[in-house]
Structures are given as structure tokens and as C-alpha cells.
Write a structure and sequence with these properties.
By secondary structure, the protein is mainly β. The protein has one domain: Roll (Nuclear Transport Factor 2, Chain: A), CATH 3.10.450. Helix content is 0%, strand content 83%. The protein has no helices and five strands. Strands 1, 2, 3, 4 and 5 form a five-stranded antiparallel β-sheet that branches.
Length: 66
């Protein structure tokens, strides 16, 4: 992947319990992957889980916005 620039915006945080955080946001990219353009706005979601004092990513996905 060649990432020339990016911008993250429109963050939303949901806490279904004290150990889980669900973050949604918009990522606007100027990039290509294996020579194929993937520039534009992408909607992203990341699930974080707390284990003791540390947080780790449990799942992440994004899809190009229409």
C-alpha cells in the first residue's frame, strides 16, 4: 500500500460495558494498493477490549463510502 495522505474525522465512541469500546470514524485517503487506487472516504469501525490496564484491538473493518 502506498499511502500519500489521510485524514480521520467524525469519531463516535460507544461503551457497551467498562471493558469494551467501539469506535467509528471516517478516514479520507489518498492511496493505492498494488497499483489500484483506493483514494476517497472510507467508513471504519474498531472494537477495543480492556485486559487489566491495557487495551487491544479485537476487530477492525472499513468500507469505502459511496
Amino acid at each position: 500500500m502506498t499511502l500519500r495522505s489521510y485524514d480521520l474525522s467524525d469519531f463516535t465512541l460507544r461503551r457497551p460495558d467498562g471493558m469494551t469500546a467501539i469506535v467509528t470514524y471516517k478516514a479520507t485517503l489518498d492511496a493505492d494498493m498494488n497499483g489500484q487506487p483506493m483514494s476517497g472516504a472510507h467508513n471504519a469501525l474498531t472494537v477495543w477490549r480492556r485486559n487489566g490496564n491495557a487495551w487491544s484491538v479485537q476487530a477492525h473493518t472499513d468500507v469505502k463510502a459511496k
